[in-house]
Structures
1.
Amino acid sequence: MKTEYDVVVLGAGPAISMAARTAAQACLSTLLLEKRQEIGSPVRCAEAVEKETLARFVALDPRWIAAEIRTFYVSNSEGNCGVMPPLEETLVLVRKLFDRELAHLAAQAGAEVAVMARADGFSREDNEHLVVHILLKGEPICIRSLIVIGADGTGSQSTRWAGLHVVPLLKDYFVAAQYLVSGIEIDPHICRYYFGWDVAPSGYAWVFQKGDRKANIGLVITEQPEERRPVLYYLDAFMLVHFPTSSILVQVVGGIPVTNVLPHMVADNYLAVGDAARQSDPLTAGGITNGMFGGLYAAQVAGAAILAGDLSAKFLKQDESLWNAAFGKLLHRLYRIQYTIYRIPDAGIRQMIKQASVLDAGKMSLKDVLAILFMVQPQLLAEVMPFFWNNE
Amino acid sequence: MRKYFDPTSIPHPLSGLVSYVLVNYDRCSSCGACVPICPPGSVTLQNATLQIDAFTCTGCFRCIYICPTGALSRIQDHENGV
Ligand SMILES: Cc1cc2nc3c(=O)[nH]c(=O)nc-3n(C[C@H](O)[C@H](O)[C@H](O)COP(=O)(O)OP(=O)(O)OC[C@H]3O[C@@H](n4cnc5c(N)ncnc54)[C@H](O)[C@@H]3O)c2cc1C
Ligand code: SF4
Ligand code: SF4
């Protein structure tokens, strides 16, 4: 390991591995730091991702694809079930192998990768560099870098060191719990969602097939008007009702901020991406591909900044512009839809799914879904219409 | 009732002793969900072990509200035998 790099990237999640790969491809000396001893583990994800979008970044490889989803079943607590084709074909990944593959691609492109390397803080020696304080296998070391890209996930410390952290509101913070279970008999190409306040108050539950009689079964909740219990409690109750005999192999829990990204994603010599910059989709809380786009933009802007010799926040703001041009409006709209949808009263949800369940399974279109939605929650009309025109 | 962290006190073997919030390490899965939500930044994960800085914690209990596993609880409740 050298003592000076062009770009140091923190955290080996999908966002940063993308950034490291892009930076290394641009012939910038790049160091990728991961605090865990194993990249990709433990997994904090339901592992579902849009196929086409992912294929823009990596060649799809069956080794890290567990299942392909062709149909979504959406159920309410009364047992009614609507059947929908997905808007985009969805894959269920083996995240552990996927994250490792991305880090491997970054290394192949020329980035140095280090595990058991925890960033512990930033300091400044001169105007040009940021000094990253690292604990490498317990030994403190300092590395000077022109640019630091922080993708240290939801619990990001680097955004605090850079002075960008904003405490999320409780209403903008999803919490999720998930079990990887074995002994599940369901169709490998079907993915199930469950809505209803007795299942997941202001949230939803999911069952994503992983093949080989395994599935990710999880539940996410948001802020509620009344006192709520820990999300794991709701998941255990759900398991008891729907999958009482299955065996739990892995427990995953985590928080997902769904604010409309951080107000500022860049500081002098520093860019935040992925969950650290709160780039997740506010409707589904999916953050894999969003993070990868974030990583790509950040690395491109970092390269341009180094070339131009201007590492100021002012120059790096181009990253925010790129992000806003691609995702700004979309995420803002999804955020508003999310806010309305997860607060539809229980009776409304039941009614919606009941109406959907009588439609012809294979033929339900987006138009039908929207028609049902409007009947129950007319104020969504203005928010959803632009998607409607774009998609049909 | 406010309780300050006393550096000389010996914490309960299963829990972290903090001013307002008690951590049950048997339940905590070090997910870090409580880290960004804490307004004064009192919560940190050090080597996958959750630490709450008793000197800066203001007792807002947002961390308890969001903790997915129920690992956090109010010291007050333990004292009152809830
Ligand atoms: C239960 C759950 C289910 C989810 N399901 C989905 C889903 O189905 N689809 C989807 O698209 N998204 C899902 N998400 C969200 C998705 O997991 C994240 O958006 C995605 O992992 C974000 O990637 P990232 O690279 O920003 O951060 P992360 O993947 O969180 O990676 C951050 C990395 O940084 C490392 N790190 C942290 N601090 C330091 C430090 N100081 N020094 C060095 N390294 C550090 C961490 O160890 C970690 O490896 C889910 C999240 C949860 C909690
Ligand atoms: S949110 Fe709960 S489980 Fe997660 S690190 Fe904090 S105390 Fe532990
Ligand atoms: S009670 Fe509030 S201030 Fe104290 S640790 Fe929890 S979130 Fe932070």
2.
Amino acid sequence: MYILGISCYFHDASAALLKDGVIVAAAEEERFTRKKHDASFPMHAINYCLQSQNITVHDLTYIGFYEKPLLKFERLLSQHLHAFPWSFKTFLQSMPSWLHEKLNITRAIRKQLKYSGDILFIEHHLAHAASAFLLSPFKKAAIVTIDGVGSWTTTSYGIGNETKIHLMKVLPFPHSLGLLYSTLTAYLGFDVNDGEYKVMGLSAYGLSDKNKNIFYEKLKNAIDIKDDGSYHLDMSYFQYHYSDRMPSQKLCKLLGGPARNTDERITQRHKDIAAAAQMITEDVVMKILHHLHTSTECEAVVLGGGVALNSVCNGKILKKNLFKKIWIPPAPGDSGASIGAAAYIYHSILGHRRVSSLRHAFLGPGYSRKAIKNLLEKQRITFREFKNVRELVNHVATLIYKDNVVGWFQGRMEIGPRALGNRSILANPCNPHMKTLLNHRVKHRESFRPFAPAVCMEDASHYFHSDSPLPPSTDFMAFVYPAQKKWRGKIPAVLHVDGSGRLQSVRREYNPLFYNLIRSFENISGFPLLLNTSFNVSGEPLVCSPSDALQCFQRTKIDYLIIDRFLIGKKDNLYKRKHV
Amino acid sequence: MPFRYYFYYALGKCKKTLIIGFQLFHKMRIAFAFLMNSILLGIAYFSVLGLTSLIARIAQKKFLDTRILKDNHTYWTNIELQDKSLESFQRMF
Ligand SMILES: [Fe+2]
């Protein structure tokens, strides 16, 4: 039985295909259209999902949509009514797309896919909860979902047991931890729904002492947090419920100055505000988890919703050790909600037994060796083909050890925002100048953002500190860990200013090629880890196809590109740039 | 020389003007549609939403709960009885 899950029209549209309870394909639309966070109807992603299994829409038993559009529309109208007449401008801006597109999702699905079967609508946070729990390794677990906003809910918790999900309590819009973070993201001069990572990165440079960071105290005026983690925002500080501009005058006054312009220099004040935003977020999440732990007595917890992408906060959760086990899926945000919608239909509505957990994120398109070779030959690229894996990984490990920046394109693309070793840019973690070099040559991103370490699973706790065994979601870079003190000076390129790293544990069984590459690097350098960052340039989505990878390679100063078994050197192909 | 020649000759000469004219017309059409849309939405906003919000204000009904309750110990709200039948998932609400 095939079930297709769809999420779209907000941000990060995606599609996912479930075959008898197993996710066989899932991908974000942005990867195909090359528009970052593309929210449009995910036609390309759907086509990919169907083609990957050689099926057509007629083979689908159900299509699941990741929210209930009318509930969301009701919330939107309530916002406009609440703020009448100040909401006029946003009303004019938002209504056309609602009337033409968003309310007609059924028609869009039927018409664009020529589908006549059943379409089921799964409430947004239920889809988040399903995406987190139903594909987790736990039979029973407490569930927490926190995001910007779904239909009405912004935060929820409940319990998952076998195939059943029971969400017990919610916090409704406009009180939203995700939107509080987004508002401060906008205040700090970064793009909402994209720059939240930057705030998280910046927070490490700010004052982390709650007694000394004045913005922490100030921000607490804008949010009332109860002991059980529930909270309400003082909406006089916010205007996202009726305006497209996020920080209000009152909030600017509270934080002692106007919002930062995109090109303005980042000062210590901005860093302290980022740290305060991070601490408030952690306060709320910790209190919710504490409350949930005492009220449910579950020993496992799963997290869903965009806030679960906050790996610094997730790292603190681990450190607190409230729950024995924790699971965060590779795409806890809206792009993973399509997976949740499909899984919810199969397990919770139809009552089928859960068969497997999502142990890797490689659910996107893959390309055959023959197709790749044809492309390279067609584009008259000079390349070297390796006859076996050992030769390939040894050669590439040497290149990385010699401080080359390497584009690494293998197998199927990752779902979720992080490159996990199939669409990655790899570099030497031991070189203290590598961060600057990478930023200068390829990534062009803010210097305060860290790069992540990919470490062989068996060695992860040797280099990074954790009180308990590393949870499996470490494979998805879900947590930030402090590096062991003695190694801090040795692997500077993958550590943040506070000596922490957003660790990715790599297991032989799920990505043998990447694992072997890291081991080869260890043989040369003595360190079983590599710097792993996403294969894209700033402002673009992760590369999807070999031709995306080639384009990215040609436009940046990546030294070598490896696609499957083919090695392409920059120097060998420089003269061809204008012909390709 | 056939008439067609003169026609195409003239057309070639006017092509640029025609293209600009057509583009202008197209832009005006979009602008007009946008204007009409905005006018209709404006009427809807100030009549329907205006009236509703007026009635709600008289009846003291709030659309969003923005209160800060310092004395209460929780903000969590229960989810109303959840209908989990297949039909309920076929609905968009
Ligand atoms: Fe969401």
